[in-house]
Specification:
The protein has 2 domains: about 130 residues, Glycosyltransferase, CATH 1.50.10; about 120 residues, Sandwich (Maltose phosphorylase, domain 3). Helices cover about 30% and strands about 25% of the residues. The protein is built from 7 helices and 18 strands.
Length: about 300
């Protein structure tokens, strides 16, 4: 709850800034920073390397889980040096345990050893946290493993829980639809209202992905294929939008050749004349200068 509150303050500060309410923005940002400091002071268990679920009158609870710790990863409450310990704890299969959904007190749960596993609804934030810190392979593995078991059981709709004990058709469990289009296809808004967007694919060991991202400006189709030698991506831009495509690095290196609609725009570490291309930490960014369809082929 404190992590959610912290993020609400951050986003309120951002919204206030966008509409020119600087005093309100500073107020919310200041309160957000105080909240972040308090979370790390009162809810971090240094011995176990994990955030606990509660602190009541100075006594920290022993119960921990994926939920609170994913929030702290997602919102950068946890500093980068804390991330490996948190990930090791909350994804340790020997610790993960589902609590009883109706009578938690009856659940066999060792609060010094176990960690609460998130149910499908909260996996939206777990997956978002993994994407935020670059753990895309782990995110895809969780989708394949957890939702894959529903498919293996013959499900044609998505369950409320990881078992068939509750609703077997539950919209709040559908986060893979969002995760795969947002993180694996890689579509994200850059400016409010999607006037500008970016396509930043994360192959995560996959050979191909294809889908459509719905935006207020119109549908954004994206399709890519990935191999050792080549990365090929195509799609189209809705009217009245600007866009860029980030060609991912491969084995720590950028592509040696990038072609946009059949024309070379990047070769051997150099931008070719007339092209809008930028070498970044995570790949080669190609800016799209005209509406409609595009095809980009990168060779490594």
């Amino acid at each position: 709850m404190n992590a959610l509150y912290y993020n609400v303050l951050r986003e309120s500060a951002q919204m206030a800034r966008l509409v020119g309410e600087e005093p309100a923005s500073r107020k919310y940002q200041s309160l957000a920073e105080r909240t972040k400091v308090a979370i790390n002071k009162h809810l971090w268990d240094e011995r176990r390397g994990i955030y606990v679920d509660a602190n009541v009158e100075g006594v920290i609870s022993r119960r921990v889980g994926q939920q609170a710790n994913s929030m702290c990863l997602l919102y950068d409450i946890a500093t980068p040096e804390k991330r490996p310990r948190i990930l090791s704890y909350i994804f340790d299969q020997g610790r993960m345990k589902l609590t009883d959904k109706y009578t938690p007190a009856k659940t066999s749960f060792d609060e010094e050893k176990d960690a609460v596993q998130a149910q499908p609804f909260f996996m939206h934030w777990v997956n978002a946290a993994l994407a935020h810190i670059g753990e895309f392979d782990r995110m895809v593995h969780l989708i394949r493993d957890l939702w894959g078991k529903m498919i293996d059981a013959g499900a044609t709709t998505i369950w409320e829980l990881w078992s068939q004990e509750a609703s077997e058709c539950h919209g709040w469990s559908a986060t893979p639809a969002y995760d795969l289009t947002t993180y694996i296809l890689g579509v994200r808004g850059v400016t409010p209202g999607f006037g500008e967007f970016a396509v930043e694919p994360h192959p995560a060991g996959l050979q191909w992905a294809k889908g459509v991202f719905p935006s207020v400006k119109g549908d954004i189709p994206v399709s890519w294929r990935s191999s050792v030698e080549e990365f090929r991506i195509e799609g189209s831009m809705p009217a009245a939008t600007k866009a860029s495509v980030l060609i991912p690095i491969r084995s720590g290196k950028n592509a040696s050749l990038v072609q946009l609609n059949g024309n070379a725009v990047w070769r051997g570490g150099s931008v070719l004349r007339g092209a809008e291309v930028i070498a970044e930490k995570n790949g080669i960014r190609v800016r799209l200068s005209r509406q409609g369809g595009y095809e980009i082929v990168a060779r490594y």
